[in-house]
User: What shape does this take?
Amino acid sequence: MTDDDDRPLFLEMGLGVDLVGEDMTKAACRAAREAIGRTSLPGIGRLLPDGDRRHMQVHVTVAVPRPEEVDATAVAGVFPYGEIQVTAVTGGLRMSNGTDYGPGHEHLIIAVAVVGVGTPPAG
Assistant: This one.
């Protein structure tokens, strides 16, 4: 959704946390799930070709400390329908979780997700 015709109709944000394990994908999926978990788009079908929600454009940007570790397919799997595009960027938060579970387990990861929903370009 970069040019004027592709502006989202709807934006929602979410946070996701992995408390132990430093799993970027787990935190990203939780952030995406939180973003869509409190939303409803009952009229979106009237804006889509044939009223089919499979045509809905869903753009997910998720920010985590190590974006190269995000499994975009797993994050896309959180969404029940639509043409899903997932982009992982550097951001979020990595900090001590106060435990001594050992390397790779002593930090929590916080992911931030922004979900944009739109319709296919006219044409």
Notes: The mean pLDDT is 89. The two ends are 16 Å apart (CA to CA).
